[in-house]
Amino acid sequence: GFAIGLSGLAFLQHATEASEYTLILLLFLVGIQLRNNGMTLKQIVLNRRGMIVAVVVVASSLIGGLINAFILDLPINTA
């Protein structure tokens, strides 16, 4: 996938937008699934294990972005 992305093929021109819309759709579907299981927003937000997982995912994503910024010689605010 990485090599194909670097190839610059014409049909990959809108891959960023397509992936963004796909993620929005996935979030929407997860919300529907949570609602169908009868979970309230309070149960979701106050779930300790879920919050720990979310914090770890955010922290590891930020660390990965910083590492890639240094590798690719990008400014940190754009990584």
TrEMBL record:
- Segments crossing the lipid bilayer: 21-38, 50-72
Q: Name one GO molecular function term.
A: L-lysine efflux transmembrane transporter activity
One of its Pfam families is Lys_export
UniProt entry keywords in alphabetical sequence: Membrane, Transmembrane, Transmembrane helix
Q: Which GO terms describe its cellular component?
A: plasma membrane
Record's protein name: Uncharacterized protein
Q: What is the lineage of its organism?
A: unclassified sequences, metagenomes, organismal metagenomes
